[in-house]
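dumping this here so i dont lose it
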């Protein structure tokens, strides 16, 4: 018993001693003197190790399980602040160390600043010296401890922290997040980590928030428990909110050992402005982004079981996919199911501008409108089976085949089928090209390899297409493009077109061009279609072969034969056309032979540069019009040419040309660019312009760099009643074109001779717009035995106006006609045209009208000439109008513009002996929405007064004409109502020598114009009864008519003696 009591007494003493020892230690360490000694002791041991400044404001140890530090400061080796801690409180369980456990009940870190940087990306951080100071010097590798210490953090709190991270050599980007320059403030966090062992991890981020100087605000990162077991990391939830962007992740799994992973990612609001803080390319996007994705796999294998990305409501991507090994992507199995990709042009433009704000979508892409794509692809990226449907506003394109991407971003292959159905190609390529409505089934092989040109082999059928409104169908083709070589075969056989053509362009050693085949029928309307042609087509055989390095030295032949041009009204067979290019004894020659033209060009010609060389030869004389080339010009064209123009009557008739050559004419010339000169000489003995017979036309043109341009033209026009002889002399020198035209006219209407001279100068205004100044030199013309003086005047053409100064004609010492003023779109500018005793007969003879006399007086003012002209007259009259037999009277023209009415008051009438018997009166609006109000009244107007104006058609006109017509409605859609009558009319057609007598009335209503049972009598009193009513709507936009003609032995032709005419004889129906 005593032994037990003694043992208890000893145990009590030990316990009390231990308690007293703790109390003594606590009291001792609570003494400021002792704390300072402990602080100084610690610093004395640390500072020699780190070899830099370190200070500690206060240290407080409590009951061996709590440490409090205040104002901890550590400098880096550059004497800059590395770390400053305002407050650090650590509470831990010291007894756990006995069981190899370190448990921190709480760590509170407040008011701290960390400044971390390194000079360049390859150098060490500024805290490396601390790591080195405490690094072990023992280089012997130790076996890992089988029972490592377990470290546990029950509660870690960070408050009001500041952190700086910089790589000093990297550039800064103000306002944009920069991973090389991160400046964080207001850093706060609450974290719990029951275990930080990666194999037994158990941690929870209750909240982490911070702000960054560029505007990034991390409102929170929150996670559920992040745990690991046997290297398998998992978390049920992770929430992140940055600025206005929220991202939620769930079911997160990652296995360290196997690299299996899984994650569900979702966000209903990703703000592009937040992305723009990290990449400025997104700053123009203005719609929220949504994402919903499910990813899993075992790296490097990955599966996308769901991925939906939306940009606003207008763009959406919905896809699933799989890749076996993204590290071996070219040989890995890949599958992509793009269920939907839809977007608009506005969104597509916005996405393209992510790469650069200056990026502009091509017009062809814009024309596609809203886009929709569905695509399924399986295989490896080297051999990928593709099946897709691309939909756009112009139409759809289906793609089916094998594609491949052997090397990313450089190589591409495709072997498959491309199908279009009524693709509106005009929307993509533009209306001006004329191609539209393409339906095609094409097999194509395409290969694009790095540093090599693309190669294409294709064949198929274009079942239908429209080219310039002509429909083509069943066009078969085979073609290839490889190494810049082009080979193609194309054929069709349809009721409208039939051809079989082969073409090659090989570029292995220069250019080798071959074209041959047969055109049995080709409708010409899409290629060449004059208004006079109807249903024109061509037949031909083509056989051509050329070779050379460039177009300037091609040699070979082209034969175009069996050619026939067929139209409803003619068949034109031009015969064979031969074109030959060769080199003989080092001299190049081009020859052409045909029934209508022979040509030869011989010498050193370079068609690709001749325009540039000629431009620079002329540039010193026309510097305003022709800009000087900045680079050096190689003047190398040195050749001569000869063209012989044969009879072209059939050719001109077929192509509706206004002229045709009768006798062979020649064009010769020489281009000598080394000497900076060229010449052209033309001689055409006889040329027909309609009914005009032009004889002995000659032209000589000489252009040199020193003397400018000298052009001389002489020609002689033969008329039935006379001739016109003309000569033109033009010189171009020092930015001026001087023209002199001499003429000699002699016919039944006009006998005139004289010379007109004008100079044309060029200039540019402040905005570099071209201005042309025409100076008309004074001269005297002899006109029908009278001297007509042309006054000195000028006409200045500017970009927005035409200014006429003092243009006029004088006769007998008086200016009888003049024009002066400014023509523009401004209402303030006007042009005045005035007459003072001008003889009407002199003016009308210029239009081959004779036997009408009178005197013109007065003036008219035209404002806003170039845009809705407004006319105002001032005593404008044609006095004493008369013919050889009658006095017509005086024509009065009164036109007055009234700004208040926004229109023109018009009164035009003929007064004879004080009686007003013909007139047009009323109102014509010049703008706005007002209606026209015009009345046209003609009473018993003799037709013989009109006959001088129609003498070439009617050799005799008698009777009278009367009318009463009212015109109303808008200027864009006038309403016309009234009647027009002919009383005892007699018309004799000069060509047919038949007289017709008419007395009837034509009714004009707002919806129709016409007459019924109009009776026309011929020379023999036989009749033709004609009924014609034209109904119209939409202001004559839509017409339909009814016509009825009854002929009773009616005389149509009565000129049997006129054998000089194409049609002569007697014809009755």
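and the seq i came up w/
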């Amino acid at each position: 018993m005593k032994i037990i009591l003694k043992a208890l007494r000893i145990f009590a003493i030990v316990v009390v001693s231990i308690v007293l020892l703790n109390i003594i230690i606590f009291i001792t360490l609570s003494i400021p003197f002792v704390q300072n000694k402990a602080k100084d002791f610690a610093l004395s041991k640390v500072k020699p190790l780190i070899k830099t400044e370190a200070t500690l404001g206060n240290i407080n140890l409590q009951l061996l399980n709590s440490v409090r530090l205040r104002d901890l400061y550590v400098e880096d080796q550059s004497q800059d602040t590395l770390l400053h801690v305002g407050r650090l409180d650590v509470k831990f369980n010291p007894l756990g160390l006995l069981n190899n456990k370190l448990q921190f009940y709480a760590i509170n870190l407040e008011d701290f600043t960390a400044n971390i940087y390194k000079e360049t990306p390859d150098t060490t951080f500024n805290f490396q010296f601390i790591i080195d100071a405490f690094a072990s010097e023992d280089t012997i590798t130790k076996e890992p401890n089988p029972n490592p210490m377990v470290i546990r953090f029950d509660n870690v709190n960070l408050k009001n922290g500041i952190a700086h991270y910089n790589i000093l050599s990297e550039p800064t980007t103000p306002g944009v997040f920069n991973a090389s320059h991160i400046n964080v403030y207001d850093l706060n966090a609450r974290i719990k980590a029951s275990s930080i062992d990666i194999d037994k991890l158990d941690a929870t981020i209750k909240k982490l928030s911070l702000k960054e100087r560029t505007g990034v605000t991390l409102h929170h990162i929150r996670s559920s428990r992040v745990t690991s077991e046997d290297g398998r990391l998992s978390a049920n939830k992770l929430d992140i909110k940055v600025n206005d962007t929220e991202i939620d992740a769930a079911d997160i799994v990652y296995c360290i050992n196997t690299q299996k992973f899984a994650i569900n990612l979702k966000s209903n609001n990703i703000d592009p402005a937040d992305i723009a803080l990290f990449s400025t390319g997104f700053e123009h996007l203005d719609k929220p982004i949504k994402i919903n994705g499910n990813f899993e796999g075992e790296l490097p294998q990955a599966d996308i079981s769901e991925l939906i990305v939306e940009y606003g409501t207008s763009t959406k991507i919905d896809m699933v996919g799989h890749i076996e090994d993204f590290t071996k992507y070219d040989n890995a199995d890949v599958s992509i199911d793009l269920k939907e990709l839809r977007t608009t042009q506005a969104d597509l433009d916005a996405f393209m501008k992510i790469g650069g704000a200056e990026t502009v979508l091509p017009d062809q892409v814009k024309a596609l409108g809203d886009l929709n794509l569905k695509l399924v692809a399986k295989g490896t990226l080297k051999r990928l089976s593709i099946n897709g449907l691309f939909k756009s506003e112009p139409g759809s394109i289906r793609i089916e085949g094998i594609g491949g991407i052997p090397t990313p971003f450089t190589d591409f292959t495709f072997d498959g089928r491309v199908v279009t159905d009524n693709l509106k190609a005009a929307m993509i390529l533009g209306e001006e090209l004329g191609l539209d409505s393409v339906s095609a089934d094409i097999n194509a092989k395409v290969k694009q390899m790095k540093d090599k040109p693309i190669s294409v082999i294709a064949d198929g059928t274009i079942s239908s297409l429209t080219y310039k409104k002509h429909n083509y169908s069943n066009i078969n083709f085979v073609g290839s493009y490889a190494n810049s070589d082009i080979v193609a075969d194309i054929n069709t056989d349809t009721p409208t077109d039939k051809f079989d053509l082969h073409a090659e362009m090989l570029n292995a050693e220069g250019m080798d061009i071959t074209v041959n085949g047969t055109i049995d029928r080709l409708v010409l309307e899409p290629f060449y279609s004059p208004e006079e042609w109807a249903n024109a087509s061509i037949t031909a055989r083509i056989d051509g072969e050329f070779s050379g390095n460039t177009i300037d030295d091609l040699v070979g032949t082209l034969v175009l034969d069996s050619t026939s041009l067929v139209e409803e009204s003619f068949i034109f067979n031009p015969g064979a056309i031969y074109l030959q290019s060769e080199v003989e004894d080092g001299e190049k020659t081009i020859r052409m032979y045909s029934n209508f033209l022979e040509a030869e060009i011989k010498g050193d010609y370079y068609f690709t540069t001749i325009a540039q060389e000629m431009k620079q030869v002329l540039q010193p004389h026309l510097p305003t019009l022709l800009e000087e080339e900045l680079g050096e010009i190689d003047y190398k064209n040195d050749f001569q040419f000869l063209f012989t123009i044969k009879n072209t009557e059939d050719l001109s008739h077929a192509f509706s040309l206004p002229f045709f050559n009768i006798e062979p004419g020649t064009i010769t010339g020489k281009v000598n660019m080394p000497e900076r000169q060229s010449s052209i000489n033309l001689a055409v003995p006889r040329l027909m312009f309609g009914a005009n017979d032009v004889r002995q036309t000659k032209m000589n043109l000489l252009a040199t760099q020193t003397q400018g341009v000298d052009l001389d033209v002489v020609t002689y026009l033969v008329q039935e009643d006379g001739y016109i002889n003309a000569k033109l002399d033009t010189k171009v020198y020092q930015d001026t074109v001087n023209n002199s035209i001499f003429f000699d006219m002699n016919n039944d209407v006009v006998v005139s001779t004289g010379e007109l001279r004008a100079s044309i100068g060029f200039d540019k205004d402040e905005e570099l717009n071209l201005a042309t100044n025409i100076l008309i030199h004074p001269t005297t013309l002899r006109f029908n035995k009278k001297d007509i003086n042309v006054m000195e005047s000028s006409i200045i053409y500017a970009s927005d106006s035409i200014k006429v100064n003092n243009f006029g004609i004088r006769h007998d010492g008086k200016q009888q006609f003049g024009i002066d003023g400014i023509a523009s779109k401004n209402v303030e500018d006007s042009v005045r045209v005035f007459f003072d005793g001008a003889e009407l007969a002199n003016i009308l003879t210029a239009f081959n009208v004779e036997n009408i006399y009178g005197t013109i007086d007065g003036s008219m003012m035209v404002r806003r000439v170039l845009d809705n002209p407004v006319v105002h007259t001032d005593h404008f009259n044609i006095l004493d109008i008369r013919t050889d037999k009658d006095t017509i009277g005086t024509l009065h023209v009164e036109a007055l513009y009234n700004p208040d009415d926004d229109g023109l008051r018009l009164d035009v009438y003929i007064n004879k002996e004080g009686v007003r018997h013909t007139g047009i009166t009323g109102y014509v609006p010049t703008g706005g929405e007002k209606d026209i109000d015009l009345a046209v009244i003609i009473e018993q107007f003799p037709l013989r007064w009109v006959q001088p104006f129609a003498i070439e058609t009617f050799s005799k006109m008698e009777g009278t004409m009367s009318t009463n017509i009212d015109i109303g409605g808008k200027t864009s859609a006038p309403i016309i109502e009234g009647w027009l009558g002919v009383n005892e009319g007699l018309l004799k057609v000069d060509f047919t020598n038949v007289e017709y007598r008419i007395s009837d009335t034509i009714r004009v209503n707002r919806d129709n114009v016409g007459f019924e049972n109009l009776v026309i009598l011929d020379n023999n009193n036989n009749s033709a009864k004609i009924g014609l009513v034209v109904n119209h709507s939409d202001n004559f936009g839509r017409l339909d008519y009814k016509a009825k003609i009854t002929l009773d032995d009616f005389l149509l032709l009565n000129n049997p003696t006129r054998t000089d005419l194409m049609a002569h004889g007697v014809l009755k129906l």
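The first helix runs from residue 2 to 29.
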